Amino acid sequence: MAVSRSSIFKNGLYNSIGSAIQMLLSILIIPVLIRGVGLDEYGLWTLVASVFGLVELAEAGLSVSTTYFVSRDLADAAHSSISQTLTVTVGVLLVMATLAAGLLWGSAGGIVKLLSALSVPQRAVAAQALRVGALIVWADLLRRVLIGIEQAYQRYDLINVLVTGQAILYSLGLLLIAMLGGKVLTLVWWQAALSMGALVAHLGIVHGLLRDLHLRPAWEWGRVKEIVRYSGLTWLVSLSSALFSKADRLVIGASLGTEVLAVYGAITSVTGKINHLSAVPVQPLLPAISALAGRPQRDQELLQEHVQQAVRFNAAVALGLSAMLFVFAPWVMQILLADAVTADAILALRLAVIIYGAYSLNAVGYYVLLGVNAVPQLMGIQMGSAILALTGIGLAAHAFGLLGAIVGNAGYLGTLWLLAGGMKRLDLRFVTWGRWLAFPLAWFLVTLGLGMILPSGSILWALIVGGVALLILGGWFIKNERTLLESWWRSRGFQRRPSSQ
Predict the structure, then answer these.
(1) DSSP code for 499
(2) Which domain holds residue 164?
């Protein structure tokens, strides 16, 4: 299955639109939840959700492996190999999902006992929520391997329709629950219902994609070993990511309590979308690199075109979002926390958006290293950075509270080595890819400088600076990707009107 630049751009655009909607929903729903259930209850909800995320590490890297191996099999038109791949990935993940759900159910009481900062009533609620969460974990783990198949088939349009639809229903449900005075347990039950519904929907899509292949269970030890090795290493990558994005909240919740965790969780939930939203346009690079790099003689020019497009897309979204959140930080925090907002909270958000925006430039390197099967290098860089960040968060939070916890996140900037490592694997020199990043980085620094000297509380000046800055960044991106944008526009059925003579 050949992957063109236009298809990568189109799929990246689908991902970006879907993730932008999800980010907007997240920013809008957080303040509603905080006002509806209170800071303590929102902090407890954040803690419970973090446990779900850690347990879902039982996925063991099998979803990424599914995308990688099925993409390669489709490129080679090897349908028997697809049967072997799916027998291993789907079969193993079904077992792992069932074990993980059972473990969460049985150990819920023991987990909450470790959270010494929680009150006795909070521990009781958390234990019940974790038991309901066993259903969420089971459904979400199985859904991931199905999405891996859909990504291999380049069906990012369907993926984003379903994921965005789920996010909209999820947010509407949370809004209604908060308005009616619901608490954490009700929130978890709503999440469980949506997770099961999403699993059924993805099963229907995958059945349609594979229907004509007449696949049957197949077992070949060489393929099993290959998948197990790749999955094991990508699982360690997922573990390192979870240490940074989930375990930090457990550390803060256990040491500083749910109220501080609520503020930290609100800030990192918003800034975490920078990384997610800037990575999803790059995600289609994985099946493309997997297919191209696996050929005996790869097309170096085509590879460079794919990577250059991905770098520009990633940089524009990551640095653009980060700069806008920096400029509008006082008003974003007012939306999130209302009367609870403080000068320290605004400073914490600004520090967070700089850190998250900068490290989000690692996305291209991340997917390149996955695509060329350089997973040990990826795992080493990401694990080292996660441990450094988590250690910094724990120590700095204990000494300096909220601001210290945010600054501790800077340890994850070590993941920028992923970009350098990925480019080296593709024989791209720094002078080449550094030039692609020069303009957006300069734009970012200038915009941050202007944001720091804006008159305090002046929304008008913030709108002017932000608007002009976005026009400049957008103009740069359109100028460099004009051909692809025009191709996508025509593919939507829009044509330029012929000029009059």
Answers:
(1) P
(2) 5-489
Give domain status of residue 495, yes or no: no
Q: Is residue 320 part of a domain?
A: yes
Amino acid in position 327:
V
Residue 498 lies in a domain: no
Number of domains making up the chain: 1
What token pair was written down for 250?
A: 């457990």
Each residue's pLDDT, cut to its tens digit, for the chain (501 residues) gives 444 455 555 666 666 666 667 667 766 777 777 777 777 777 777 777 777 777 776 666 777 778 877 877 776 666 667 788 888 888 888 888 898 888 888 888 887 777 666 777 878 888 888 888 888 889 988 888 888 888 888 777 777 788 778 888 888 887 888 777 777 888 889 889 999 998 999 888 888 888 877 777 777 777 778 777 777 777 776 666 666 666 777 777 766 676 777 788 888 878 888 887 888 777 777 767 776 665 555 566 777 777 888 898 899 989 998 999 999 988 888 877 776 678 888 899 999 999 999 999 998 998 888 888 787 888 889 888 988 988 888 888 888 888 888 999 999 899 999 999 989 988 888 998 999 999 999 999 999 999 988 887 788 989 999 999 999 998 998 888 776 666 555 555 545 444 443
Tally of helices (H runs) and strands (E runs) in the chain: 20, 0
**AA letter at 165:** G
| Distance in angstroms (rounded) separating the CA atoms of residues 132 and 49 | 12
Burial of 88 (0-12, 13-18, 19+ CB in 10 A): buried
The per-residue DSSP string of 294-342 comes to TSSS--HHHHHHHHHHHHHHHHHHHHHHHHHHHHTHHHHHHHHHGGG--
pTM of the model: 0.66
User: Is residue 84 within 8 Å of 220, Cβ to Cβ?
Assistant: yes
One-letter amino acid at 257 equals: G
User: E-assigned strands of 10-58?
Assistant: none
Distance CA 19, CA 403 (A): 28
462 found inside a domain: yes
Helix axis angle, 221-245 relative to 247-256, nearest 10°? 30
SS3 497: coil
- DSSP string across 157-217: HHHHHHHHHHHHHHHHHHHHHHHTT--HHHHHHHHHHHHHHHHHHHHHHHHHHHGGG----
Determine the length of the chain.
Answer: 501
Give the whole-angstrom CA distance, residue 73 versus residue 109.
44
Joined together, the tokens standing for residue 431 give 């002078």
